[in-house]
Structure formats: structure tokens, C-alpha cells
């Protein structure tokens, strides 16, 4: 019955309810079953029989050698083409339809009430990026947003860069995982998934013509970075079995994906990979991290060939670095269990050169930070409340960290 319920409450039937409100669907099931009259539940007609999945012996071996029996492993079909599996899911859906038939009026009432509380033509707050204001907007009755931009001001003509309602037509599942515009504002790289396994396909659209280029790279992770030449895209290739991000590659537009350059490969499956561009848009960074360790390597956007490690991975050593203007802003737990913010100037070399203002010390938990050219915004958390603050860094001078501690910094 589980598969049937999932289908009935999916976006195909409940159009207009967006993923951010999926908890409403779960609550709706409980309300439906609780509100259904007992007479309807105890109808004299013979109750439908639930389908029973066949049991087939299958051993699953773990990487560390453990073996377990999974008699329902055959239900996994990543291709979605196994006739026996599809027949079983069809039977589950039919069973769900029969069981929930008496609740149809209640379903319609709940759907009308929930969607009536949603702003159908909602839109996001525009943000300025490289001369364009970007935003998303919904049309009445739509399940997917339209991504658009305007040059210079919100009074300029609208340019639709991704018409997701049109792109999703005919698809049982559709998702845009991420998008990234090239530095010259001409090309759009985006991740598209029409299967539902987050094995995205990297595609590129020419925003001057509206046409999608022939470049198409399957099995990638959402999140890209453009090089300064406006034709090289960095992306993360997934392991086809584990779906872990494993390899960072560089693709040059107009060349086959088989010729893509391998930039970095994460050989430790306990680490996850990330990729992005710093706030200054001067560096491309590769992020490796797990619960107790971080490692970040970066290269200049203008010439992203050699990636330099900011600080090597070490157990119980966590950090994240962003580049702003001519300095690195680092949030780290180095000598600070509750984290702190530090700066490293581009000109700083050698141990003991990290310095600048440090806000978060031992009492509050420094949980996040955001940077611009002259302002850093941070968020801290204590036992009683979460607080925020900001400070101007434009005229701040670095001073040797060795004045405060005898231990050299990891990024010297």
C-alpha cells in the first residue's frame, strides 16, 4: 500500500503543492483516514486484497565483508524497465485506489483548502549578479517555477532563461538541481533530472539565441563552476552505483565528454565532494568533507589548472574558506571548539600570518558566515538564543596570530 499512497499524493495529482510543503501531504493522509466515516470503512463489499511481493533469495555484501539476505532486492530497478517490478507497483497503486476510494470527497476538500492557502503566482526577491537581476516566479496553477532575469533594473524587459513548466511537460519526474551563468552572461549551465535519482544531466543553453547546445554530460552532481574563458565548465561526476560524487572534471564546450580532463578524484568514500566559486569570483574551490574533517583546494578562475590545498584534512579539524576582495575569510574550529572567524591576506605566506578580527570565541557557537567586499555577516548560537551581527572589514589590518598563541596556523 505504501507505493500506492506515494503515487496518489505525488505532484502529478496534487498540482500546485510544492515540494517545500510536502509535510502537508503526510498530514492529509492522517486526516483522510481519521475523518472517513466508519460506515464507509465497513462497506459490505468484499475488501480488496493487497498485492504480495515475491521473495527471491539475494545476498548483499557490504564493503567491510558483512553479508545479509535481502529477499526483496529484485524490486530495485534503476532502469525502471523490469516488467515484473512495474506490474507489482501497478498492483499496489490499484489496491491503494480501491482502499482510499471512500475518501475521495475528503481528498478533494483537503486539496482545495491547502492550495487555497498558497499564493499561486508567488515570486522570489530579485538579486543582482554581474549586472542582471535574477528571480523565479510561478504562474497560477503551475507546479514549477520560471527562472528569469532583467538587465540593469527590474524595469528592463524580462528574459526567461529556464521555462520549467514547459521543460517538465510529458515527464513523470522533473527537477533542475542547480544553474550557473557564465562570467560573460551569455551561457547557462544547468543540471536536469527526469528520473528521480539525482543523477543529473549537465546541459548548456545559449541565452542569446535560446538554443540548447549539443554538449550533454550524464551522471553528474548538481553544482558547477565556470572558468574565466567562458567555455570550460567544472563539474562532479558520480559513481554510478553508490551515487557518491567521486571525480571533478573540466569540460570544454564543443568537445566530447570522453575527453574531459580529470581534475581531482576523491578516493575516500567517507568524504563528500562539493564545487563552487568564491564570493570574489576569483577562485574555483573543491570541497571535501565529512563529520569530523574538512579539506578545501582552490585555483584561480583565470587559470584553473593547479588546485592548492588551503589546509590538509585532519581528524577533528573543520574549516570553510571564502575569498573576498584580497583576503580569505575562514570559519574554523581550530583552537576554538565553538568555531571562530579568521582572515588570511593574499600576501600572507608562512606560519603565523592568519589574523584579523575574531568575533566568535568560546562562549557562543559561530554557526555560519556570509561575506561581501566590506561586510561580513555572522550568526552565532548559545543556549538561550541565536544572534546575528555584522562588521566592517575594509580598513582592518592583519596582525600576527603568534601574539595570541604559540601554535602556527594551518593555512600559513
* Classification by helices and strands: alpha+beta
Strand order of the largest sheet: 7-8-9-10-11-12-13
* Helicity, as a percent range: 10-25%
Q: What number is the mean pLDDT? A: 81
Written as H for each helix and E for each strand, in order along the chain, the element string is HHHEEHHEEEEHEEEEEEEEEEEEEEEEE
- Termini separation comes to 59 Å
Please tally the β strands and state the result. 23
Shape: globular
**Major sheet characteristics:** 7 strands, antiparallel
What does this structure look like?
With 412 residues, this protein is an alpha+beta fold. It contains six helices and 23 strands. Strands 7-8-9-10-11-12-13 form a seven-stranded antiparallel β-sheet, with no helix packed on it. Strand 8 (187-193) and strand 9 form a beta hairpin. Helix 1 (2-8) crosses helix 4 and helix 2 runs antiparallel to helix 5.
Q: What's the quick description here?
A:
The protein is of the alpha+beta class.
Blueprint (SSEs and pairs):
Elements: H1 2-8, H2 23-35, H3 38-41, E1 59-61, E2 67-69, H4 83-100, H5 104-116, E3 127-129, E4 132-137, E5 146-151, E6 159-163, H6 164-167, E7 175-181, E8 187-193, E9 200-206, E10 212-226, E11 232-238, E12 245-252, E13 261-265, E14 272-277, E15 283-290, E16 293-300, E17 308-311, E18 319-324, E19 327-332, E20 340-345, E21 365-371, E22 375-381, E23 386-392
Antiparallel strand pairs: 1-2, 3-4, 4-5, 5-6, 7-8, 8-9, 9-10, 10-11, 11-12, 12-13, 14-15, 15-16, 16-17, 18-19, 19-20, 21-22, 22-23
Spell out the key features of this protein.
single chain; 412 residues; alpha+beta; 7-stranded antiparallel beta sheet; 4-stranded antiparallel beta sheet; 36% strand; disordered N terminus
Amino acid at each position: 500500500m505504501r507505493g500506492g499512497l506515494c503515487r496518489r499524493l505525488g505532484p502529478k495529482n496534487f498540482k500546485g503543492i510544492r515540494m517545500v510543503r510536502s509535510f502537508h501531504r503526510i498530514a492529509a493522509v492522517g486526516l483522510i483516514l481519521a475523518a472517513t466515516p466508519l460506515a464507509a470503512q465497513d462497506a459490505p463489499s468484499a475488501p480488496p486484497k493487497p498485492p504480495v511481493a515475491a521473495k527471491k533469495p539475494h545476498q548483499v555484501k557490504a564493503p567491510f565483508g558483512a553479508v545479509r539476505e535481502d529477499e526483496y532486492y529484485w524490486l530495485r530497478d534503476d532502469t525502471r524497465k523490469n516488467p515484473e517490478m512495474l506490474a507489482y507497483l501497478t498492483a499496489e497503486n490499484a489496491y491503494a485506489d480501491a482502499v482510499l476510494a471512500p475518501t475521495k470527497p475528503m481528498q478533494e476538500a483537503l486539496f482545495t483548502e491547502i492550495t487555497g492557502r498558497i499564493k499561486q503566482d508567488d515570486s522570489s526577491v530579485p538579486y543582482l549578479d554581474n549586472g542582471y537581476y535574477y528571480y523565479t516566479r510561478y504562474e497560477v496553477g503551475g507546479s514549477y517555477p520560471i527562472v528569469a532575469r532583467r538587465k540593469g533594473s527590474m524595469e528592463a524587459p524580462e528574459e526567461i532563461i529556464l521555462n520549467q513548466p514547459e521543460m517538465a511537460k510529458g515527464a513523470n519526474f522533473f527537477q533542475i538541481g542547480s544553474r550557473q551563468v557564465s562570467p560573460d552572461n551569455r551561457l547557462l549551465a544547468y543540471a536536469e533530472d527526469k528520473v528521480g535519482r539525482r543523477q543529473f544531466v549537465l546541459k548548456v543553453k545559449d541565452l542569446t539565441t535560446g538554443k540548447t547546445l549539443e554538449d550533454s554530460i550524464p551522471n553528474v552532481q548538481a553544482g558547477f563552476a565556470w572558468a574565466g574563458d567562458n567555455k570550460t565548465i567544472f563539474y562532479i561526476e558520480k559513481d554510478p552505483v553508490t551515487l557518491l560524487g567521486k571525480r571533478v572534471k573540466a569540460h570544454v564546450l564543443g568537445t566530447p565528454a570522453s575527453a574531459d580532463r580529470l581534475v581531482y578524484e576523491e578516493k575516500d568514500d567517507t568524504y563528500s565532494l562539493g564545487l563552487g566559486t568564491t564570493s570574489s569570483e576569483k577562485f574555483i574551490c573543491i570541497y571535501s568533507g565529512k563529520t569530523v574533517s574538512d579539506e578545501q583546494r582552490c585555483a584561480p578562475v583565470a587559470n584553473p589548472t593547479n588546485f592548492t590545498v588551503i589546509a590538509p584534512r585532519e581528524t577533528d579539524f573543520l574549516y570553510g574558506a571564502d575569498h573576498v576582495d584580497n583576503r580569505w575569510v575562514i570559519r574554523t574550529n581550530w583552537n576554538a571548539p565553538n568555531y571562530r572567524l579568521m582572515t588570511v591576506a593574499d600576501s600572507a605566506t608562512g606560519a603565523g600570518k592568519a589574523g584579523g578580527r575574531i568575533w566568535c570565541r568560546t562562549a557562543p557557537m559561530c554557526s555560519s558566515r556570509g561575506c561581501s567586499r566590506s561586510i561580513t555577516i555572522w550568526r552565532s548560537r548559545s543556549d538561550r538564543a541565536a544572534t546575528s551581527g555584522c562588521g566592517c572589514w575594509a580598513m582592518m589590518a592583519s596582525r600576527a596570530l603568534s601574539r595570541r598563541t604559540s601554535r602556527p596556523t594551518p593555512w600559513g
